[in-house]
Amino acid sequence: MTNYRIALIPGDGIGRDVTAAAWSVLQKAADKAGFMLDGKEFPWSCAFYKETGAMMPADGIETLRGFDAILLGAVGWPAEVPDSVSLHGLLLPIRKSFVQYANIRPHRLLPGVQGPLRSAGFDILCIRENTEGEYSGAGGRVHQGTADEVAVETSIFTRTGVERILRFAFEQARARRGKLASVTKSNAQKFSMVFWDEITRKLADEYADVEVTSYHIDAMAARMVMAPESLDVVVASNLFGDILTDLGAAIQGGLGFAASANINPDRSAPSMFEPVHGSAPDIAHLGIANPIAAIWSGAMMLDHLGERAAAGAIIKAIEWTTACGIGTIQGKDRTEAITASILAQL
């Protein structure tokens, strides 16, 4: 029997509740499909930072390297630890150290979910560059606290980084409906984004079966609202992809439905799977967090591990649950009730 080692990082706030929910669903799906999931939980979080002065131990990355995949809940507690500390102390180091350069986020309406748009028939897969670009962390501040203070944030775009994420997006489009939208702001950012557009055009010659359209970020934001059904695969830089996928979450009914995967495509290191939502400190104690995004992320993990039948069964169980009106309105149903419905369908 195949046994997968999974690192569990519940993190902060509702991350703990939704990770527990996702893990129970994953365990049942594995049992039904005939494989095993061996999970080890790590307490790395803002609470861990307050106790130790670090978001994870110095050997945290090497510890995680031995696992087949990572399931993360949510990280952040801004009233206690600045977001800039929690993000750069845990999530970003994992993405960069394990070369998880492809961030995948699906956006579609689940059965029974009422989105804010007139259009309901959309199915968008957003591919976000995940390790460089605007979130490279290059820059600094000088003359701090004075009237002459200067802050510099430098975006880093490498040919390797841009080409590999675009090639990954082309392959996803080829496997879906054959349409790719590449998003930049090359009319204003004449170096990095013109560079991105040039590589897009070059690769398009290799993928003659894929219809490629280039959009500016503002035009794409409008299109996702006005004509989301016209989009298939959307690829963008780290910052632009981050913003567009929050918009994608909104049009699919809210962050409680937004799943994501941080993928190392060559599988030289573990990939990480997490709901898009944050730790939601305001509802962390209420037991009403929607676990669907975390459970969907878990299904993406199983698909990545090659257990596609089990992943598909989880997605069908989610769809059955929302079709019955359970988990469709944020805050209406308790976390345990939504989880129980999905488990029952499995």
TrEMBL record:
Q: What keywords were assigned to this record?
A: Lyase, Manganese, Metal-binding, NAD, Oxidoreductase
Which reaction is the catalytic activity of this chain? tartrate + NAD(+) = 2-hydroxy-3-oxosuccinate + NADH + H(+); (2R,3R)-tartrate + H(+) = (R)-glycerate + CO2; (R)-malate + NAD(+) = pyruvate + CO2 + NADH; (2R,3R)-tartrate + NAD(+) = 2-hydroxy-3-oxosuccinate + NADH + H(+)
- Give every Isopropylmalate dehydrogenase-like domain span: 5-342
Name any cofactors this protein relies on: Mn(2+); Mg(2+); K(+)
Q: Which Pfam families match?
A: Iso_dh (PF00180)
* GO MF annotation list: D-malate dehydrogenase (decarboxylating) (NAD+) activity; tartrate decarboxylase activity; tartrate dehydrogenase activity
- Pathway assigned to this chain's UniProt record: Carbohydrate acid metabolism; tartrate degradation; 2-hydroxy-3-oxosuccinate from meso-tartrate: step 1/1; Carbohydrate acid metabolism; tartrate degradation; 2-hydroxy-3-oxosuccinate from L-tartrate: step 1/1; Carbohydrate acid metabolism; tartrate degradation; D-glycerate from L-tartrate: step 1/1
Q: Where in the cell is it found?
A: Cytoplasm
Q: What is its EC number?
A: 1.1.1.83, 1.1.1.93, 4.1.1.73
Indicate where this protein is primarily found. Answer: cytoplasm
The similarity annotation says: Belongs to the isocitrate and isopropylmalate dehydrogenases family.
User: What's the stated role of this polypeptide?
Assistant: Has multiple catalytic activities. Apart from catalyzing the oxidation of (+)-tartrate to oxaloglycolate, also converts meso-tartrate to D-glycerate and catalyzes the oxidative decarboxylation of D-malate to pyruvate.
Q: Which PANTHER family match?
A: D-MALATE DEHYDROGENASE [DECARBOXYLATING]
UniProt name for this protein: D-malate dehydrogenase [decarboxylating]
